[in-house]
Design brief:
alpha+beta, Outer Surface Protein A, domain 3, 2 domains, four-stranded antiparallel β-sheet, three-stranded antiparallel β-sheet, 26% helix, elongated
Length: 195
Amino acid sequence: MSKIGIKPIQLPSGVTFTRKGNLVVIKGPKGELSYTLPVPIEVTLKEDQIIVSRKNNDKSTRALHGLVRSDLNNLVEGVQNGFEKRLEIKGVGFRARLEGNVLVLELGFSHPVKVAKPEGIEFRVVKNIIVISGIDKKAVGATAAKIRALRPPEPYKGKGIMYQGEQIRRKVGKAVGAEEGAAGAGGAAAKPAAK
């Protein structure tokens, strides 16, 4: 049995669950989301709990069991509380601003980069932090990844766009590495040869 798949999903107050064939619709205070169930997965509502079960024990069906349960749980969480990703911009002259529904990024290129707001996603800019929020976890994550990919953090100075709290593995620059190598080589050469 799937350890995740067998856990029931508790419906909070104010969140409703309806099913029409293979289409599941979940409504809550923040909006409405729908999900198409795979054929071998069964979903039922029992006393404010969503129960996910499988129709057979095939390997592919077992793999879907936990996935569908996680997806449905994310829908419930999204319509109740929403999701948020924060991106941090680091670098001299790097900045972000909003122009209506368009996020304008200055990332050291010859021109500003404009990102249109996808449907169901909200942008906020607080100093050097871009806040991406919405009710669909996948859409929020995909939008954040798309923006981060415009200027991923580089390992020498650490400038670029990164998730807030992300640790960037830093590398030693060529100049510093060359100095250390020269000092090591010079030290070896300075020793007098043994007679």
